[in-house]
Design goal:
alpha/beta, 2 domains, two-stranded antiparallel sheet, 9 helices, 9 strands, binds 1,4-dihydronicotinamide adenine dinucleotide, DNA binding, repressor, DNA-binding transcription factor activity
Length: 219
Amino acid sequence: MTKKTIVPMPVIRRLPRYHRYLEELLKNDVKRISSRELSEKMGVTASQIRQDLNNYGGFGQQGYGYNVEELYNTLTKILGLDKTYSTIIIGAGNLGQAIANYTNFERTGFNLKGIFDINPKLFGLKIRDIEIMDVDNLEDFLASNKIDIAILCIPKDNSQIMADRLIKSGIKAIWNFSPIDLKVPDDVILENVHLSDSLLTLSYRINEENLLKTKVEEK
Ligand code: NAI
């Protein structure tokens, strides 16, 4: 189980995209946008946008549309981006290092405080001034540092044990990249990322027409 949301997940999954579009509009100095324009830009119906936002009180006025800055600020709050978060990365391999090196997360308020690995060859190396530490020190580190999010970038065979350790030490949110369905208590928020799902969807779409043509021909 992972912590249940109050608003349905499909709505929540659309919010970052609204936020991204509004940020772009704001950068381009757009002050207001009609719900029709916004929906056309985003490829979502105006009523979908309205329904989604209604979960948080509703915005926009009939005949005026949306005030871009106001809606952007509200979505920033809704997404919790008006706060900062402390993060750690477990696993300083290819993926862990790539995430550690991606400075944009920091700009959005996700501050990397520690990187842990099991490989002694990596101990003491630094990524952006943050030292890679021995994972044996994880519990001590968590006891003296308030960490909001653990980012899991280790091989899947070790992931459940690591998740259990993190949770035992008080971690309440895990951003999991390991290709495994972790079991977590229902007060822990688990967010899985599987880049390969997206890649396989892409390859499906490359092949869909042929696939369905063959099916019709077979009939
Ligand atoms: P990698 O082999 O380069 O790095 C894994 C690192 O984890 C190594 O440095 C290793 O020493 C460390 N490690 C292993 N057990 C550990 C433990 N118990 N505690 C701390 N550190 C430990 O592998 P890579 O390419 O970085 O991938 C890492 C994980 O992410 C794999 O599970 C892989 O399948 C997954 N992955 C997921 C993607 C996604 O989209 N979800 C994309 C790419 C990789």
